[in-house]
Amino acid sequence: MTTAAQSSTLAEKGYNGKLLNVNLSTGEITVERPDESLYRKYLGGYGIGARMMWDRVPVGADPLGPENMLGMFAGLLTGTPLFGQRWQVVCKSPLTGGWGDANCGGDFGGLLKLSGWDGIMFHGKAEKPVYLLIEDDKVELRDASDQWGQLAIDNEMMLKERHGKKASVANIGPAGETLSLISGICNDHGRLAARSGVGAVMGSKNLKAVVAVTDRKVIAQTPEIIKMLRANLDDFVKPLKDFFHTFGTTGITAMSALNGDSPVKNWGGVGIVDFPNAQQIDGGSTINPKMEKSYGCWRCPMACGAESVESQNEKYPYPRHTHRPEYEAMASFGTMNLVADPDALIYLNHLCNQYGFDVISAGSTISFAMECYEAGILTKEDTDGLDLAWGSPDAVVQLLHMMGQRRSIGAVLADGVKMASEKIGHGAEQYAMHIGGQEVAMHDPKLQPEYHTTYRLDPTPGRHTQYEGNKRLGRIPAAPADPKVYEGRGEHHKGASEYMHVVNAGGMCQFVMMAANTSNIPTWFNAVTGWDMDLDEIMGIGERIANLRMAYELREGGNPRQRAVPTRMTGETTEGTHTGPLAGVKLDTELLETDFLRACDWDVETCKPSRAKLEAVGLPEVAEALYA
Question: What is the pTM of this model?
């Protein structure tokens, strides 16, 4: 295999100024040294990823074909002391057919950055399974034939034994290898870049893993930056930081199941009616006692994760140091399927991490199957005798195994609810809770209206992490306090979504930023780059990324306004809102969407950014392409 070696001299900035291009078809590895302007215009993460996707993926490329690009990019602050833990994957999504990205914590982003690289772009397809080994400046492709078929965490442990405990591994499990459209990319013992089907793209390229090994510790760790870090940590909102550190996102699970936040029973149920035993999966009283120690992503100041003791339940044998499930896993397998067994939920989360499934999509797909079974569309003949009864943890575990092994009905369900409903037919489509092909996150937009707009209109549909109305930033207009008031949310939502593009491209964690004083973001960026950015320039970057992601979606034939939204999610039908906290709530979806689109200067029918907008945000060549 071809090896690339470069000088070990690295500038102590927030970015290395180096990207890797890996042609898997030829084995050629080349180094790219972008101009500083690329970082100043796009920061990192999927900001740079969007630029590369627009420039380098042919229009109409097959998402699972060799022309698609799989990009892995660390954020601008990732690898520095200043709140950078995250990295992103970009590709053309095989799940939605348009723009695709996935966000991930763990340690891979930091180790990739410390090894000297801001990102990797994979092109083509290897003839046989391979993995990429990065040892600082030494980069080479190695045979992975002996690894194909391994579960993701098992494969990670094997590669750490081979390359040392300091190695960080990003890999796929069997779900990605078999091109499951709801598969993700794993790292750090079960952290996933989960959404958009990125694992299937990695599998389509016969790429099993990326391994980064380095002795370098932290980028730009100067006395001045450490002093700044300590001052900013003192300014954290302590109750919020303490809550996340103690409970993680699991701390809101029981409450959300009962207050209308979590969807219940495939979006057709009500928590206080259908899942009154939600307290059995409370993060503090039932999940935390099964944990052994707190855990954080790479140098995270909040450490909202935890790792378990070994399971004492023979039916659900998760090993010691299994990750505590996050809220999305608890809700998608728990409230959506009425499963109230904590051990089963921890085990299901572990299985998703081993197979490499997106927990949101996997839990939602099982919920879809259960409703199809209840309606008589699926029978025991279809399920190999498995009784898909609501609230049965054993049935959910067995069905997840079948999906991971593409066995029986699992082979149909392994690509998510849209594909499954089309294959099953007989009215199954009415129970397929997805938007644009992707299963929807575990937050009901009837409780938080902006979620509807981002679920439907963001280039990656169904995503809850593309919106956050951060108040400490000081730049996002306030939204109406009453969630039933739909007018006047457009400018707020525009600012909140563009802020999240800054957070994501910056490599920062959304939860850390909830506690941190985000008005300091310009200071953090400038400290590790030597730039002189102000908040106007930074928010302009968020707007540029927003327009480029949308432009890519449109270029590939998408139109978010034409995506169907299940009526259960909007309140147009009352299956999930006949009683309880959301009784009678019906979203004014037209007002919410058009207010947002007008605020963005995007066409209200096509979502197409105006030529003037594209030129104003520094994308004249994109304007030429869209208006040719």
Answer: 0.97
